Amino acid sequence: MLKAENLTKQFGTHTALNNLNLEIKKGDIYCLLGSNGAGKSTTINIFLGFIPANSGRALIDGHEVTVNNHTTRDLVAYIPEVVNLYGTLTGMENLEFFSGLSGYNYSKEELTSFMETAGLQHSAINKRVSSYSKGMRQKVGIAIALVKKAKALFLDEPTSGLDPHASNEFSQIITRLSDQGVSTLMATHDILMAKNLGNRIGIMHQGTLHHDLLSEEISHSDLTRIYIDIVKQDV
Ligand SMILES: Nc1ncnc2c1ncn2[C@@H]1O[C@H](COP(=O)(O)OP(=O)(O)OP(=O)(O)O)[C@@H](O)[C@H]1O
Description:
Elements: E1 2-11, E2 14-24, E3 29-33, H1 40-47, E4 55-60, E5 63-64, H2 70-73, E6 76-79, H3 91-101, H4 108-117, H5 134-147, E7 152-156, H6 164-179, E8 183-188, H7 191-197, E9 200-205, E10 208-214, H8 220-231
Helix pairs in contact: 3-5, 4-5, 5-6
The chain binds adenosine-5'-triphosphate.
């Protein structure tokens, strides 16, 4: 579903992403670990068509990503650390607005059911987003992904700052989407979350993917050790 082929990105003379090769299959939850500046967000931003790569290719469902490519944008949804919504509108109004932008025209009942699938409490749906917690905003973000019928989800540190209950709820929703065939690429600093939620885990450092691991084949303590060994190297 997602493929990076020799993907390289430079900002001036700085190599933010160095020859990344990666394949994420339908239903995979791929957690990308790495310290600050490792290149995680750069990878996501290239897949989203926000920034161009200097060389190599990013492919989504066989389509090559280019900046502002509507074909690939329509296939994906993006949930950043803080989901950007209109605070003066209700959750429902936001969902209506964003689904309209994506060219859908759902009934109120259908939109309500997307919100419920995303885990937003019924009593919150018609409240203004300015009163929402971070976790509630993320649920609207997930509802937007559901509305778009996104085949791939890009998550950038989505659980940072969420309490354990909200974080657990979030993981459950991503797992359910994975069961339905949605692929996820998630940048995170949370090793335990990566181990528990991801079926695959990448460890990136200074723009290079050092490890591409199967979650079931590695313990949390081994993963932590490998991660620390990698990030303490100054390449
Ligand atoms: N627009 C930009 N202009 C210049 N340098 C940039 C730009 N965006 C990212 N970089 C640099 O590229 C490198 C990779 O950054 P990136 O944001 O991808 O890292 P990250 O792994 O997501 O880090 P974090 O965990 O802090 O979010 C860093 O050295 C960063 O300073």
